[in-house]
């Protein structure tokens, strides 16, 4: 059974169709990278999977359950998005712990999870600060920590490393890859960084204008692009 199945999803904003019959099936433990030019609908698709935007038609299944009309909290997912909204009145520690508290995880386990992700993301020294006392890159790491503290069925990452400096981005990429190998989690990850796509993905989906043009292994998409657009986008040899 697929860990995540997106079935004929369409999404309209007013009269504009932004997702056009998108279907993707992701096996448990698979790392799917979603790439495509700015404005092609990547974030809209992620928001639909997360339940932040209702779809116009189609269905979304997680572990075989139809979650199309469930709230984000009822979908066993954790997400890190571009607009990493942290709770401003809470400390970093409370921000990371909050999702676990909501799910009634006992305090010792919550504390252990906070220590684990703080160590992983090198934010231990920031745990007692408020979001307003952090840089953009630090906030992004806290948002990442909040997602990683949980162990949901599916992680959604929408350009999570885009605000980090080059060195940290490479470190974080390595950490995400290790985490994926260690936990075997299912991940959908949006990036416009081709190197990131080729190094992280089991599977790459190339999107253009609300449609999936090609879905395949990095090797397939790179070496056997379905058209000139995919070839150009992936930098395939001609
Ligand atoms: P991407 O993440 O690939 O850059 P988006 O999913 O953010 O693209 O946007 C896809 C299209 O949908 C764009 O044309 C964008 O302007 C439009 N769009 C996104 N969100 C909204 C919204 N809330 N209301 C109206 N149009 C939107
Ligand atoms: Mg986007």
TrEMBL record:
Keyword Signal belongs to the record: no
Residue span(s) of domain ABC transporter: 4-234
GO (cellular component) term, any one: ATP-binding cassette (ABC) transporter complex, substrate-binding subunit-containing
GO BP annotations, alphabetical order: carbohydrate transport
Source superkingdom: Bacteria
Keyword line: ATP-binding, Nucleotide-binding, Transport
A Gene Ontology molecular function term of the record: ATP hydrolysis activity
Protein name from the UniProt record: Carbohydrate ABC transporter ATP-binding protein, CUT1 family (TC 3.A.1.1.-)
Full-length numbering of the shown residues: 1 to 238 of 373
């Amino acid at each position: 059974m697929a860990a995540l199945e997106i079935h004929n999803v369409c999404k309209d904003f007013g009269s504009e169709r932004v997702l056009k019959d998108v279907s993707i099936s992701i096996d448990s433990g698979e790392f799917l990278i979603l790439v495509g030019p700015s404005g092609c609908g990547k974030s809209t698709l992620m928001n639909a999977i997360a339940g932040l935007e209702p779809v116009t038609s189609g269905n979304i299944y997680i572990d075989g359950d139809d979650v199309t009309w469930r709230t984000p909290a009822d979908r066993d997912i954790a997400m890190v998005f571009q607009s990493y909204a942290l709770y401003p009145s809470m400390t970093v520690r409370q921000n990371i712990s909050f999702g676990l508290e909501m799910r009634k995880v006992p305090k010792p386990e919550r504390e252990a999870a906070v220590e684990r992700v703080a160590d992983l993301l090198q934010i231990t020294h920031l745990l007692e600060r408020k979001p307003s006392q952090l840089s953009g890159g630090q906030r992004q790491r806290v948002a990442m920590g909040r997602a990683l503290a949980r162990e949901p069925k599916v992680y959604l990452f929408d350009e999570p490393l885009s605000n980090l400096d080059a060195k940290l981005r490479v470190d974080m990429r390595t950490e995400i890859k290790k985490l994926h190998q260690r936990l075997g989690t299912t991940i959908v990850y949006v990036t416009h960084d081709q190197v990131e796509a080729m190094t992280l993905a089991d599977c790459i989906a190339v999107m253009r204008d609300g449609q999936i043009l090609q879905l395949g292994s990095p090797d397939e998409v790179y070496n056997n692009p379905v058209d000139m657009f995919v070839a150009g986008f992936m930098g395939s040899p001609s």
